[in-house]
């Protein structure tokens, strides 16, 4: 287990290094030079040359990539062109808000999806099962941006049940949670469908396994078999899906943060792109990739802990 | 008889049989109807559109639906129905082209990783994992403006970020298939690896991959709309459901109609393709159900 965890963490670090390096090279390979892009209309040949030298863009690519990696390791992600502060400071303000949203969304998805999926599996082929099946597919299909816009129109602007904008970060925990409800549902609702379907499928498989038959033969109560033994195994694939799904959820979070004017990585990036604030948008991609890599690594290790067979299959 | 060889009349019968089975599933039937409507409206957008989708008529801006403008007008007085119909063309083209390219490259790279020279396997898998480390929408926001917003950039981003998904599945399937007795027999007979891959392994693994690809079409449609909403996708005066949604969101205080006009076709398309994909999978490859 320890060896597997270390290997998985090592792979995560390698992937992160490769992701940072390739992103850097991709940006450099883009048409137009970064110096002009950063300077915008102010670009004069002298200014461009100064920026090129300052950023080390006149050096060979491997040296540039190495230098960039070193500066990222030291926490130097460049300067926010808008606030003139280090990009790291800007990220420190916005990343926690996005992580809050992602955490709450995963919670919404799991708290609704797991019970729905397991009840559907236990009542297989019932009307409830079919209704959950249809509902799952439907919520998966509707894009988060639409759920966010209509959620805001109906529940915030129309009914006034929840705040329409902001994250309520300066008004205490209750306000924070109040501001989080609708955005978390908008990001998490599609995953309710994925999780319900996945839990249902694996639960059905587990419930027909030999050890469940044995448990029944020994006279263990059905409730105990389902919730104590079967659910534990059936939930394992959910953890992988959530691990992989964090990337998609981050995409949904971008829309939700924009629609609800919530501070966060998505809104930060959107504004950075509008203002051509490249250091911030690059830093935000790196932060988001870092979160995604950490999430998939943790989900793999958790999965191996719950079901050791996972270590052999690896995916 | 080779694995791919089939009898044409039997194939036609199998196709009809498959279609009937698909239509007997309510989800499949709804999917087929919605997708057919969508495809027809996109193909005949030029005939069906009452106005030029880019024609500006500022005095008639932000009108509610009427007999002249069935879905109303936007902030520049453009006819929203015409824009929605042309938006369907964009959504379908992006989704189909991106899916085809992602599957094509994914299959090639996955086959090389799974059945090509051993030393290539690890670097390819590592490259897949690296690309998968970027959240798609966030990467698109960063990279899109640098390469210039537009259709090609949207397709490029969707293809690059989806290839690893197909590549990994193809690699796993190829490795499993290559252990089959018939592959060993063909190798013992001296058939080249490339020929075995193309003639025998590929036809055996491509079915499930195509079904998975059909399930990605709604994801790509939603991604195009999302990227256009964010301003890194399709650029005006071209039309896109995401652009209509963006206009609607910006003018939400004046009218709800634009948001509704952008959402309804988008939801219809994603629901239709999702239902169709699900039904296709359940009808033709129930084994896939467990893993998806």
TrEMBL record, chain A:
It holds the Pfam family BPD_transp_1_N. SUPFAM superfamilies: MetI-like. GO terms for cellular component: plasma membrane. The keyword Flavoprotein does not apply. It is found in: Cell membrane. The keyword Chaperone does not apply. Its main location: membrane. Residues 95-303 form the ABC transmembrane type-1 domain. GO terms for biological process: transmembrane transport. The chain crosses the membrane at residues 9-27, 101-122, 134-156, 176-196, 233-260, 280-306. Keywords: Cell membrane, Membrane, Transmembrane, Transmembrane helix, Transport. It is a multi-pass membrane protein. Belongs to the binding-protein-dependent transport system permease family. This is Glutathione transport system permease protein GsiC. It comes from Roseovarius aestuarii.
UniProtKB/TrEMBL annotation, chain B:
Keywords: Cell membrane, Membrane, Peptide transport, Protein transport, Transmembrane, Transmembrane helix, Transport. InterPro entries: BP-dependent_transpt_permease, MetI-like, MetI-like_sf, OppC_N. It is found in: Cell membrane. GO terms for biological process: peptide transport; protein transport; transmembrane transport. The keyword GTP-binding does not apply. Residues 88-277 form the ABC transmembrane type-1 domain. The chain crosses the membrane at residues 29-51, 90-113, 133-161, 201-223, 256-280. GO terms for cellular component: plasma membrane. Its main location: membrane. It is a multi-pass membrane protein. Belongs to the binding-protein-dependent transport system permease family. This is Glutathione transport system permease protein GsiD.
